[in-house]
User: What shape does this take?
Amino acid sequence: MAEGNEKIIVEADEQGSYRGSKDKKNTVRVLVFSLAAEDYCIEIKQAKEVIRLPEITRVPNTPEFIAGVMNLRGEIIALVIPHYFFGLERKKKAEEARIIITDTAGYSVGILVDRVEDAIDIEEGSIQAPLSTLNETIFSFTRGQIHQGNRILTLLDIEKVLNNNEINVLRKGAE
Assistant: This one.
C-alpha cells in the first residue's frame, strides 16, 4: 500500500463476485485485514472504502467497543472496535491502523482494524466451514475459513458483527 494515498478504492460488481470463463472457477473478492495477530477478511462488497485513521472524537459514556466518531465528508460516523467482540488486544500503535467504512447493517459505520493488507480473489470452493474450536462469539460472526499459503483467514460476516446484541441495544437507545 502506498504511503501517500489517503484511501484505497476497490470496485466490485453488484454481487461482489468475479466470474471467470467456463474453464475457470468462481471467485470471490475479499478484503484482508488484521486484528491483533489474527488475519481476517470480508467480502469486498461489504466495504465501501478504506481510509487512514482520521481525527477521532471520543464520546463520553459510550461502551468500550465504540472508539468515538469521525467526520467523513460531512457525515458523522461511529467507529466500532471489533477487537472487543473477539476478545483481542487492540494495538496501541496506530501507524498502520485503518478504518473500513461499511453500510451493510443499514447505516454507515467505521470498523477500526490494525492493518489492511490487500484485496484478493479466492475460489468459492476454498471457503471451508468455520473451525469448531473457535469460541462461540467468533463462530457466530464467521462465514468460513480460507487456507492461503501459510496462514488461515477467517471470513467474517460484518453484517452479523454490526447487528449483535450489544450494538442493537445501543442503537435502540439512540432511537
Remarks:
- The chain is about 15% helix and 40% strand.
- The domain at 19-174 is CATH 2.40.50.180 (OB fold (Dihydrolipoamide Acetyltransferase, E2P)).
- Residues 72 and 108 are 10 Å apart (CA to CA).
- The helical segments are 83-86, 136-141, 158-162, 165-174.
